[in-house]
Design brief:
Chain lengths: 418, 527
């Protein structure tokens, strides 16, 4: 169902008028907020990023997580004091100047790893990867540093959670989280980092549970999965579990563009990793057809379902130079499957005679069939195409221009029965 | 106000009885400046919608034995000689275990009046149909009734064509009240929904059963108009308060909890409450009534509101309430990810699915299974149960009434109750037996392997009350309690009319049941 939003368990909010008492309270709150904001800005102006300022940012961000400048102040507090410094041998002062005003603005922009990596001080990067020449003392110090950093970074992740629950689509919170997670990869030992990133995957699942249409969360999830699969985290492929995840999402809500889309994107790699032979690929294809068929059977008006069905049909028709589920299908097999689908869809018309997407699909797929067999539509097909086009004109008069174009392109002439 | 002085006030209204309707009236008046005296001849709240401990159940049954002409009759308790029952106060058996659909008007009123904050609402989970297998050697099963598109998609129990039919029906119902769709069914409005489904949708028997079950129709013959209303309410309630459920159930005894919360609100608003006080006699003057209460007090009031507990002319139902020590976990699984764990499951045994004395049941039996999450029984713990093969054979082939079977196993088991089962059906000459059989069949369908154990049974019959309010001078009688298994919002209008009588034109109708919180409350507290 649609996003429940708010904190009221979906119980309808009835509008409240503020009493004078509540208005006074609000004025107090505004005053406190402004004071807090002034304090933080004053400290930042002096380049004061001490732990006290850090505490102030906590307060301020709880009140207003959209205040991206304050997130930057917080980052600076971490880099310049709370997180461990790079060890002697590389100048710590190198770190700060690279965090120039331009770099910090890129940090607060869209969630993409490339823009984030520009602001990571090179000194720190070399520190965590270089292991040669460290003495026992340095080794111990490093371990302590890592433990300290782990605590700090996990606390930071924890800090953002209640903020995310309240504002699940606030870019700055997600961006900050990603920055922290990047620090996790750079500063912490791989098993620890991995575990934290796995928890992150769990978090995206929860966010997608709350709002399945949060495209933001889907994109974020893909990024998390990518990291988990990367060599930095000694990752292995998560394609099976991600595929299973799309299945679950679809079962919860059939109209899930993002889930079906993700699914289609995962299939090539899925089949490769399974080392699927032609037999297995055929079985997989049939299973997907079955699944989408069941879905369309109950949701013929749902665009996302037809898009996926079309994806499967294009698999039959557009296989040259494209990753395809069933590369070994013969021409005959392709034709058979396409025909079968067209017949199956025609059956739907028995009960759903006013679903325009059905007519569109029949129209398109008949043309696919002709394309596949490199021929023009035969007499019966022309009759059918005209019929379907006629229905489309009736059901979707807004797109009459489109139907007219199709008519012209195919040399069909349909007379509308009034 | 001291008790002794209740005779000194000219009350604006005396409300007699703390059943749901009278209690809602008290709630509606809780912010008015009216003087309200709210009495109840019973020594408990809730009236016909009360919830009882085991002791209270026994007192109630004893009392009914002496006055068998009221709404409740033919009550009896069966306590098999088995161990496992907890102490009596650990139970809260509801006389009105009604579901409240998410879109019901009652909930809107509880929200707008803020009284909802006092009630803990639990989710009602899936609705199931009990399916007798074609092969008598096979075990019966419970089939979930699909009521969302995703349910229909996932179920393997219906053919593709039938699914299309069902989807068309669901789509129709969602829009049934629009002018276009009205034309489709208005001819059938008073005719049975079954007939409409047959005629217009050509539905097969199985699908028809699913649909009728969603209406919880006791005689299976609900009218098209009423049926479509209820199904529409069910479908639009689905997901309304969260994923995976369409109805709620108040913890600690169902409707009785609503009544108690409403009375509490009344008390906070200044109403005076007296349990154990009924009306002994009354004398009506021009613009006031003088009441002599059974407590001896004499009070004067401008208006008397009572519940009408005379018998109406509609059905009588049979009910069996069974405390069962049985693992029913599979019934209380959340339906989808993110859904709350339900505490109530609904199972329908359609007409013809049970046989007693060689005859199949004419009317459906509805089973409301409550887990201990409802607070109506203690949390269950089961110890290991060893059953020898010979015991199992005896159980499966036995035709003896359910509870006697379990005497044989009583010594081995040490169950604590973990469920309260409410079974309802139309009262007939053998409805008591039908309910027994239904309980047995239901429990065996839930879990074929474990042998369930019944620890306590309450049986009674309840007649329908009067459906209309009646105003006779200064006495207003609210209609009797509803037999409907889901909350029937039509009774709310009578409460509203009573409210209007009390407040007159001093209050705007739009303010009915609309209150602000007494103390500013941060909504975030209710996360």
């Amino acid at each position: 169902m649609a996003d429940q939003g708010g904190s009221n368990h979906g119980i309808a909010r009835t509008s409240r008028t503020r009493t004078e008492e509540q208005r006074q309270k609000d004025l107090e709150r505004i005053k406190d907020y402004r004071a807090l904001e002034d304090q933080v800005r004053a400290h930042a102006a002096k380049s004061d990023y001490s732990p006290d300022v850090f505490a102030l940012t906590s307060k301020l961000l709880r009140l207003n997580p959209e205040y991206y400048t304050v997130w930057n102040v917080r980052r600076r507090c971490l880099i310049s004091g709370l997180l461990s410094k790079p060890s002697p041998g590389s100048s710590p002062s190198k770190a700060l100047p690279t965090s120039s005003p331009t770099a910090t603005t890129t940090t607060s922009s869209a969630v993409s790893s490339s823009s984030l990596s520009t602001e990571t001080p090179p000194a720190l990067e070399s520190q965590t990867t270089g292991k040669s020449g460290t003495t026992a003392e340095e080794g111990q110090q490093k371990q302590q540093d890592q433990q300290n950093d782990q605590q700090i970074l996990q606390k930071e992740l924890h800090f953002t959670i209640p903020l995310l629950l309240e504002s699940p689509k606030c870019y700055w919170i997600w961006s900050y989280r990603l920055w922290i997670l990047k620090q996790v990869i750079e500063r912490l030992p791989v098993p620890v980092a991995r575990k934290i990133w796995e928890e992150e995957l769990g978090l995206t699942s929860k966010m997608l549970l709350r709002d399945q249409r949060n495209f933001h969360a889907w994109g974020y999830r893909r990024h998390v999965v990518e990291q988990l699969e990367s060599p930095e985290l000694e990752g292995k492929s998560l394609v099976e579990s991600e595929f299973e995840f799309t299945t679950k999402k679809i079962e919860q809500n059939l109209s899930n563009f993002s889930a079906w889309h993700s699914r289609s994107k995962l299939i090539p790699r899925l089949l490769d990793e399974r080392n699927a032979d032609d037999e297995a690929r055929k079985a997989f294809f049939e299973e997907e057809l079955g699944k989408i068929g069941e879905a369309i059977n109950v949701g013929p008006d749902d665009q996302s379902l037809w898009y996926y069905h079309q994806f499967l049909m294009l698999n039959l028709v557009n296989f040259v130079g494209h990753p395809t589920i069933t590369p070994a299908f013969t021409q005959e097999e392709r034709v058979t499957y396409l025909r079968r689908e067209i017949e199956g869809i025609q059956e739907l018309l028995e009960d759903y005679d006013d679903a325009k997407l059905i007519y569109e699909a029949l129209f398109d797929y008949t043309l696919y069939l002709c394309q596949l067999q490199e021929r023009k539509p035969n007499e019966q097909e022309v009759k059918d195409l005209k019929g379907w086009l006629g229905s489309l004109k009736k059901l979707d008069p807004m797109r009459s221009g489109r139907w007219a174009d199709l008519e012209r392109d195919l040399g069909l002439r349909v007379t509308m029965e009034v | 106000m001291a008790m002794g002085s209740i005779g000194d006030t000219l009350w604006d209204v005396v409300i007699c009885g703390t059943g749901l309707q009278q209690s809602l009236l008290a709630l509606s008046l809780s912010r008015s400046s009216k003087n309200i005296l709210h009495i109840d001849p019973n020594d408990y709240y809730g009236g016909a919608e009360a919830a009882f401990s085991l002791q209270e159940t026994e007192s109630w049954v004893d009392r009914l034995a002496t006055e068998d002409k009221g709404l409740f009759r033919s009550a009896s308790i069966t306590k098999p000689d088995v161990a496992g029952l907890s102490f009596p106060r650990a139970y809260s058996l509801a006389l009105a275990p009604q579901l409240i659909h998410a879109r019901s008007e009652l909930l809107s009123q509880l929200v707008s009046s803020r009284a909802y904050r006092q009630v803990e609402f639990l989710a009602v989970g899936s609705f199931y149909i009990f399916k007798t297998p074609l092969d008598p050697e096979q075990q019966p099963s419970l089939v979930r009734i699909p009521s969302t598109r995703e349910d229909v998609f996932s179920t393997t129990a219906i053919s593709a064509k039938a699914k299309r039919g069902l989807m068309k029906f669901l789509k129709f119902v969602l829009d049934y009240d629009s002018p276009d769709q009205r034309d489709v069914w208005k001819y059938f409005a008073d005719k049975s929904l079954m007939d409409f489904l047959q005629e217009h949708f050509k539905m097969d028997a199985e699908l028809k059963t699913y649909i009728i079950t969603l209406t919880l129709s006791l005689d299976g013959r609900i009218s098209t108009e009423d049926g479509l209303f209820i199904i529409h309410r069910h479908l639009t309630s689905m997901g309304h308060f969260g994923p995976g459920f369409a109805a709620l159930y108040p913890k600690w005894g169902g409707i009785s909890e609503i009544a108690q919360v409403a009375c509490r609100a009344g008390a906070v608003g200044g109403a005076v409450y007296m349990l154990g006080a009924g009306i002994k006699s009354m004398a009506t003057a021009a613009d006031e009534i003088e009441l002599e209460l059974t407590s001896g007090d004499k009070v004067k009031t401008k208006l008397l509101v009572r519940g009408d507990d005379s018998v109406g002319d509609e059905p009588i139902i049979s009910r069996l309430v069974a405390v069962v020590g049985s693992p029913l976990k599979s019934l209380f699984e959340p339906t989808i990810e993110g859904a709350p764990t339900p505490c109530v499951a609904v199972v329908a045994l359609p007409a013809g699915s049970l046989t007693t004395s060689g005859e199949a049941n004419t009317y459906p039996v509805y089973v409301f299974a409550h887990s201990s999450g409802t607070g109506e029984c203690p949390n269950g713990q089961t110890s290991a149960l060893t059953i020898t093969t010979s015991d199992i054979l005896i159980v499966l082939s036995s035709i003896k009434p359910f509870c006697i079977i379990h005497n044989m196993l009583g010594a081995k088991a040490n169950w604590k109750s973990i469920g309260v089962i409410y079974l309802s059906t139309m009262a007939t000459s053998n409805s008591k037996e039908i309910l027994s059989r239904a309980l047995e069949s239901f429990l065996s369908a839930v879990d074929h392997n474990q042998v369930p154990q019944c620890l306590y049974q309450l049986y009674y019959e309840q007649a329908a009350g009067v459906k209309q309010s009646r105003l006779d001078g200064l006495t207003l009688d609210l209609p009797g309690p509803s037999l409907s298994l889901s909350m029937d919002d039509s009774l709310l209008q009578h409460v509203r009319e009573a409210w209007k009588k009390v407040v007159g034109d001093t209050v705007d109708d739009a303010e009915y049941m609309v209150f602000t919180d007494r103390e500013p409350v941060d909504d975030d507290d209710y996360e």
